[in-house]
Design goal:
By secondary structure, the protein is mainly β. The protein has strands at 2-7, 10-13, 18-26, 33-39, 46-51, 58-60, 68-73, 78-83, 92-99, 110-111, 115-120.
Amino acid sequence: QVQLVESGGGLVQAGGSLSVSCATKGRTFSSYAMGWFRQAPGKEREFVAAISWSGINIFYADSVKGRFTISRDNAKTTVYLQMNSLKPEDTAIYYCAAGRYASMTPSYDYWGQGTQVTVSS
């Protein structure tokens, strides 16, 4: 079993930056691929970014490419999402997930409870 706890969400103005983290507990973090997804009110959960267990393979949604950066620290069993040049449409609850493969689909085994990110215009 793996427990995921997101933190770092908050309110930021458009054009600003925010970093969210996902700390894990349980089975070996370094063996899991990690992903970030988000869900805005009234919308389906959508893929944001993913990183393989080694950190070599990284994927981004087109909507965040060039603005967001996913990274991981296996020693700290934590995955990060650095968000720059934020837009109001980035407002959502951000979820981290752990699974066997870095995927753009929500086919992960474990999910966090989510952290709210609000971008004001």
